[in-house]
Write a structure and sequence with these properties.
The protein has 210 residues and is an alpha+beta fold. Helix content is 43%, strand content 23%. It contains seven helices and six strands.
């Protein structure tokens, strides 16, 4: 019990971006226990997130990069993109994890540019990274018990800028991007909750001994 309380107090978002300049936090109550909900979050395949404006916004956001690389053929689209795939094959890193409770991924970049300049920063350097001209983004997934058979799923997005000019640029960008970020959160929450319920039903109907 004391260990769980200690982990609850030690939020990964507070460790890596304790004082965000911009943040977005969303919660949903999931009809599944913590174990299934956390497993669903950890196994989330981002290529399966298709939600109206979110998909359209993602495609629009990618147009400058596609236009810049038009002479090199169409961009390769991943067939699967879990958190582990993201950390292994991109500038994103898995910053930390409280197994069964919370994990966080992060990246640095110039997010306000039409073609984003990404910067891979390791977990040990992330909190202190302050190179001018960049922002730091941390995305945290947390799962807590909500009664004996349900769980509270939280997605916490935090952004911290490294200097005042970057803060001004990101603020202008955020005015446009914030509604799409909210839609993305909704799509992620729904996908995880749906998978968690399916995992719970499968476990409930599994024959004894299997």
């Amino acid at each position: 019990m004391m260990e769980q309380e200690s982990r609850a107090a030690d939020l990964l978002g507070d460790r890596f971006v304790p004082n965000p300049h911009f943040s977005l936090v969303r919660h949903v109550i999931v009809d599944a226990p913590v174990e299934q909900t956390y497993t669903a979050a950890r196994a989330l395949d981002l290529t399966e997130i298709h939600s109206g404006l979110v998909t359209a916004a993602s495609r629009l956001r990618a147009l400058p990069a596609r236009w810049r690389g038009r002479h090199h053929g169409p961009p390769r689209r991943p067939t699967r993109l879990t958190v582990d795939d993201l950390a292994a094959g991109s500038d994103w890193v898995l910053l930390g994890e409280h197994p069964g409770t919370e994990f966080a991924v992060g990246v640095a970049g110039k997010f306000w540019r039409p073609v984003v300049t990404w910067r891979r920063v390791g977990p040990a350097e992330f909190a202190a990274f302050a190179e001018p001209g960049y922002g730091k983004l941390v995305l945290t997934f947390g799962v807590r018990p909500y009664g004996p058979h349900r769980s509270l799923l939280t997605i916490d997005t935090r952004v911290q800028l490294t200097d005042p000019p970057s803060w001004l640029k990101f603020r202008r960008y955020w005015r446009v991007a914030a509604p799409f970020a909210q839609l993305a959160h909704t799509a992620l929450l729904r996908a995880i909750a749906s998978d968690a319920r399916q995992r719970t039903l499968a476990a409930y109907h599994r024959p004894d001994g299997d």
